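Q: Here's a chain of 574 amino acids. Please give me its 3D structure as tokens.
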Amino acid sequence: MAIAAGSTTRLWALVAKEFWRKTRRRLRAGPIYRWRYSGRTPERVLIAPPDLRLADPQIALEIYYGRYPLSGHLVETGGKSPFQIAVPNPGWQKTLHGFRWLRHMRAAGTELAAANARALVSDWIAMHGNHISGVAWEPGTTAKRVIAWLQHSSVVLQGAEFPFYRAFLKSLAMQIRYLRAMAREMPNGKDRLRARIALAFAALSLPAPASALRGATRNLAEELDRQILPDGGHISRNPMTVLEILADLLPLRQTYANQAETPPAALMGAIDRMLPALRFFRHQDGSLARFNGMGATIHDRIATILRHDDTAGAPVLHAPHSGYERLSMGGVTVIADTGPPPPVDVSNAAHAGCLAFELSSGRQHYIVNAGVDTYGAAEFRPLARATAAHSTATINDTSSARFSHSLRVNDLLGTPLVGGPQQVPCKRTDQQGSQGFLARHDGYVARFGLLHERELKLSANGNVLAGRDRFQRPGGAAIRNNGRDFVTVRFHIHPDIGLLQDEHDRLLLTADQADTWVFTCAEVAPEVEESIYFAGLGGPRRSRQIVLAFKASEVSEVHWQLTRTVIAGHPEKS
């Protein structure tokens, strides 16, 4: 079905803007502008900012032997420099040129690792330092590289002779000038914010006039105010983005302090909001809820970041600006998507998962969304982003939002999410002894004339999650039996959960040394179907889903319930 006129207009306006932006970027990377990136070479690095990302000395050893495990892919170089090899994987290429893997050399702490780091930086300078083109000079990748070179300058420069020392600083200065020129041309989103963070790091870490630091600080503050929402979420609505940005902002805050400079209020405020937001998205096992681009969680990364959260209280339950709700009691956590899609220009990883939820009990996940395979094949991403991959309702096997499939659009913007819900009203229904919310979205109104309303209520010390899904026409008229009212409500089960049917035809969700939950529905007999869980640490896994299938003209409202009948370690019902 055609995209609504308003969405079409916005989309093509973005295409035109991005085309012009890329044209200007090519001009700025060309020989006419290149002289602007030359200039005075800094004499030294004043300070090496800290790096909070996890480091593994074993990876440094792998790299020494020519094996590069980057972005989920292992590439063996056979004795060649990795910068000489044409690897068809874009993620691997971006990670290579981003140089974050230098942290593994620092963690190794050996002269051999330092010499290898220096040799690889020297290779990059020789092969790419004066050729501003390709993935190596994409502004987002350049921002990562500038931060990494500054953070790990101590290991790169350890034992360096003067010619390399000068070449390193000269290249770093050139990249900073290039990034300063390109930052204003970058599209909205985390890469532009990271560019501003990189420039602030540079102004603090290298000898620079006070005006340079003031300008970098001002631009950073403006970008933080633009991208970080009042509740601490990011405008992309992706929980992973909150984690990634915090991993840069926290060291930047420390660098301001180490240099006896006052950090901008916007930086302090953003961190103070984002740390609770990160805890909002976290289940009790430490993993983040799988919404809007979130894949597998590396738990230690989150723990490292949250060590800097001084509040240490219970996570907030309501994130209205990000569009999420949280229910939590008795060791049970429910996290739900109750917001419209993010703006089109930052929706390249967004999902059509409105009103989807996840449920965990203790450290075990029971109801999940499929999530994304972060390092997997790109052709599977549309499946993971579709409404059917989420624990919510679909109508006529159609997603509640659509993805652009135009090659002209995709070449410039990727695959933005368009034409999704416009209005998603939500209100909390908390009472004594229970937590809940009632939300509704209009993502199916334009095509099928139906609203989807969902109410969730967690009560009985977390032992009962009661749900209600209701379908109605905007004016309240009867739903037509026209063959366009087929509803499927899905509950995706985590792969570690066993799904059994007891003698009363109830569905039991079980796991070793974990709680047992029972699923029931009053109006529709639940069915069990195959599913796939994309967000496994080892890649996609087969799983199952509970399905309620019916015609909205015959059953406009279903009531279902998940009841915890056995708590791990307590054989009797709680």
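Q: Can you summarize the key feature?
A: The radius of gyration is 25 Å.
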